[in-house]
Amino acid sequence: MGLAAYGTPDMFDQKFVGDAWSARNIVTSAALTEPEITAFLNKVSSIGFGDKPTKRIHWHSQMNLIKNILLKAEANGLNFAQDPFSDFGKAIAATAQKFFEENSLYALRALEKVAHSFGGQARNLCMTGGAALNCPANTRIFNEMQFENIFIPPSCDDGGLSIGAAMYGYHQVLQKPRSPQPDLSENIALNGRQFGAAEIKETVLKNKSVLEISDCANFASDVCKEIADDKVVAVMTGRSEVGPRALGNRSILADPRKADNWRRVNQIKDREHWRPFAPACLKENLSDYFDGGPPDSPHMLFNYNVKSTRIPAVTHVDKSARVQTVNKSNTSMRALLEEFDRQHDIPVLLNTSFNGRGEPIVERPDDAIEILKKGKIDAVFVSNMKITLRR
Question: Is 171 within the bounds of a domain?
């Protein structure tokens, strides 16, 4: 998603928008021969695809698509061996993103037709699974479809299958009543593990030989002062987030007004230099800085156009941003944004997950301390303590 904004979808082909059945007879200069398809299916049969007719149709269309893309890339003079940020990498990313968006819209329009054919009305949409993490596609669905409400839970992965099965068993089989549901604009991700003050203090004191520890008289004020002093800080407070997005309780935070913080935080996290960062914004100020998306994005799952020039560290190359809207249910992040707005007249912070490259978001206090020990983050705020490395 991030890399796609740097390129153009030069290898996109409308013929490949649709389902595998409708694409089964597509003939292009890139069409695979029957022996090529058979050889491929033989390779993947050991992982469960086999040679069933439906799978054969699926792989026939998919492999034709891939070969078509690669031939177009070759005709455009692109070098496959270059790194991801090359012209080839950018074009492939943009093309893949375009195919994903168009096929997502195709599938939802087909779903809408099915609902109408049964006399139903497709007013509400819930999306999950890893595909629902694609923020540009989600925003196009919001803007181009006619759904009244779109809900995407924070834990977008295949775990939804097991969660759904458990809920079905609990509510339908065991006939247990459903509890009142929160407003769709609320953040429901903050339901992970929480640590008590005594456990946190014990962990911190075990490492006191290498740490400077001070009490925070005012958590929000102290964090925002560090950020305004051009520090990159991490916070660990309350319950951990469910899902892959850090939404203020296990976050790395920086000043969005300073363009170089994009580079700095990518270096801290050892990420590719082109990957963008998300802004957390007070919900009531969303339209002051962003447009082009839904009125609520509590789980950081939609893209918006950036209207303001004051926040370059969270403005992607295509002038977009993956916004997290923060309302009063997200108490710790809300307090930080309100304080930063009070101090500096800007209700936005750069917010990214508190973790290192290839690591999950920190869960325990010692996870947070271990990242601090690597010497890249200026300070970690845990509970009512500010922790830095001893110099």
Answer: no
Show which of 115, 145, 167 is a domain's final residue: 115
DSSP string, 178-222: PPPPPPTTS-----S----HHHHHHHHHHTTTTEEEEE-SSHHHH
- Do 238 and 377 lie in one domain? The reply is yes
- What are the φ/ψ torsions at residue 290 (nearest 5 degrees)? -140, 155
Number of Cα atoms under 13 Å in the Cβ half of residue 388:
12
| pLDDT score of 24 | 63
Q: Tell me the CATH number at 267.
A: 3.90.870.20
Indicate whether 209 and 110 sit together in one domain: no
> What pLDDT sits at residue 331?
86
**CA distances in angstroms from 172 to 125, 148, 165, 167, 326, listed in the order given:** 21, 27, 10, 8, 34
- Count how many domains the chain has: 2
pLDDT in tens, 10-35: 999 998 898 877 766 665 555 556 66
Among 115, 146, 171, the domain boundary falls at: 115
User: Looking at 127-180, which runs of residues are DSSP E strands?
Assistant: 149-151
User: What is the rounded CA–CA span in Å between residue 37 and residue 185?
Assistant: 47
Residue 242 · residue 192 · CB < 8 Å: yes
What is the spatial distance between Cα 265 and Cα 284, in angstroms, rounded to a whole number? 27
CB 226 within 8 A of CB 378: yes
The low-confidence residues of the chain, meaning pLDDT below 70, are 23-61
Beta-carbon-side half-sphere exposure of residue 158 (alpha carbons within 13 Å)? 0
| Residue 203, domain member (yes or no) | yes
Secondary structure of residue 308 in the 3-state scheme: coil
Q: Are residues 335 and 208 in the same domain?
A: yes
* Residue 142 within a domain: no
Quick one: which of 178, 136, 335, 134 has its CA closest to 251?
335
Which of 348, 119, 117 minimizes the C-alpha distance to 227? 348
Domain range for 54: 3-115
Residues 6+ apart with CB under 8 A from 391: 212
Does some domain include residue 109? yes
